[in-house]
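Posting this for the archive.
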Amino acid sequence: MKIALALSGGAGRGAFHLGVIAACEQNGVEIAAVSGTSIGAVIAVGVGSGVSAFDLIRLFQSQAFRKIFCFNWFHRGLFRIDEATSILKEIAPISRLEAMEIPTFVTCVDLYSGSILRFSQGDTIPLAIASSALIPLFRPIAYENYLLVDGGFMDNLPVAPLLDFEYPLVSVNLFPLHVKHSKKGSLLERAISLSLLSSSESQIEQSDLCITDASLGDVGLFTFGEIMRCFELGYRVGSEKILTFMGQKSIMKPFLTSEGMR
């Protein structure tokens, strides 16, 4: 089965995405188009470049990945991501979005126009970093005539670029709805969560399948300590949801006309 996959933002919870993608790889589900915001965009360009989920989780666990975050001396943001580090080229070895192995979309917000921008062409690494520029923590990214920041401010679950594809649309949401705030998180994390949640409900309704888990609400946004927990959770939940979905599609297929299918 082929799917179109939308990956939400969610910072340190991003390994959940990789677990779901690993579940797809292990169960014969082919990702035929991918869209991402923030950490979802970073993972999307890896998927679009043909890098496996298991290779990506190895890279995300490495010390080299942690070193891409640099203190920015409060110059338009507390931190910046070092675009020159070689590990980013391992995550996304294809340098242009239009050259990706499958259609790949990166969602950003332009501070100048206040518009959502969905890039399917352009420089892979700068655009993925721009999609992750969560101000004021990270500096905005100047790209062409834009000043780009985290796409999650306006569209944290970017299903829109995938709606015209014929494949079932599967979204992965790192901010489960209707989950009470964990007291372990900071007020900043709570404020960010509320901001990103507000843009997700309608996108979930547009998905054929949305994969998430309530326990993600207990995972901190700005920590590396729970990478494998999130990966294993994504793999388990993803396998269950995907296998159930595949079974439902198999049962329904004989009863659907071509006009009734996506």
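The chain has a mean pLDDT of 85. The chain has nine helices and ten strands.
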